Amino acid sequence: MRQLLLSLTIFLTVTAVHGQKYGNVWQFGNSVGIDFNTCNPTVVSGSNSGTEGCSAICDSTGQLLFYTNSDNVWDRSHNAMSNGTLISSNGTLSQVLIIPKPLSVNLYYIITTKVQAAGSLTLQYHVVDMALNGGSGDVTIKNNVLSTLNVTEQISATFHSNGTDIWLMTHEYGSGNFLAFLVSSTGISSTPVISNAGPAHVACISNINARGEIKFSPDGSKLAFNANGVGGNDPSNLLTLCDFDKNTGVVSNPLNLPFSRGEFGLSFSPDNSKLYGTTWKAFNFTSGDYNYLYQFDLSGGVPSTIISSKQIIDSMQVPVSYGSLKIGPDGKIYVRYTGSGYLGVIHSPNQPGAACNFVRNGFLIGSQSGQYGLNNYIEYAAYCNTTAISTWAGSKNQINIAPNPFSTQTVLRTDNYFRNATLTVYNSFGQIVKEIKNISGETILLSRDDLPGGLYFIRLTQDTKVISTGTLVITD
Length: 476
Fold this sequence. Notes:
The chain is mainly β. The chain contains three helices and 33 strands.
């Protein structure tokens, strides 16, 4: 029995840390993609011709199901899906999103928005049923109006605090309203939670500043939002950091950050402590202008400190531009930029400034001129790392936890002296529920606090490397 329990514990731990595989295959740009299933990404082919927003979704084993550029839907074999012609945006929406219907095995939603907050398009959802067409899927319902409010091109999602439902987020153009739609097993609520948390867009050429990205932090506690402003009209640019309540859907405490003009891409770091942004100076800028990749340090939590922490990580002279940013399943941030067959890679995104280790020609994908998008999906809460798996093969880095189970507090010990390490606790849904940073020593006192009884998974990291993993059981 003891051996059985140990085997079960190992299985559950690896599943929790590595079980999120819905974003393991990306499809974007000119018929190219990336497969992360071995945790060593490789380039794969595809059919997607979207220049900006793209989204793909995988099954629980990391195998591609289908993907879209908002205009069209392709199946796993890169064939056009039946009834898969959706809206007409010429593939230029900044973001499109695929999310699973909670508690459903086969149903998925595709969410599309408006092109530059103009024209007849609305915020819409479309339904794909993977039980059809021999498991290759079909679009069964499409072009359903979710809201007639004049939304931007930005769309993002994060899990509800219950670990099952999903919050779908967009922003109304010309107002300070964030719109959070609850997605549950009964469908998508047509009545959003509206948070007038600012800022409002300033009118500019062709509503260009309706472009950009909305991104949640991996733990869902923060939300970043920008606007792709134009040259000669600085107020048309926006860059804002907000708090998000995963239980209520409320956005609050907006902090306006110093922008670099022409804001476009956004990403938090895997540990939620950094915010990265890029610029795409598209209109009314000159060859004397520069586009930037920059970082803010959020770890101090003090607004003035966050504002003053901005560091330029990389720059390129116009007309070369950056595009989307996205955390990969390997915990690195991938950076799209034009005029190159490479993606940039931020190898250590949790680290400040130059220590983030950005490599401009970091990942070869082939000819991709004029492409700006990467795959959009709900951020992972944990990332693949072969070191984490190897700790279960008799490694001396395994954590000793006693008592375990426990009701109030427990002590964690390792064989190594660690310095400035981070202990992360995940619930059974793979969501981060507790985090202790800047730990030094050989023991950690972990208090239960308000965690409910149940099974939890832990990971101890130092300098972006996994030192140890383990499981906890809290009793009532």
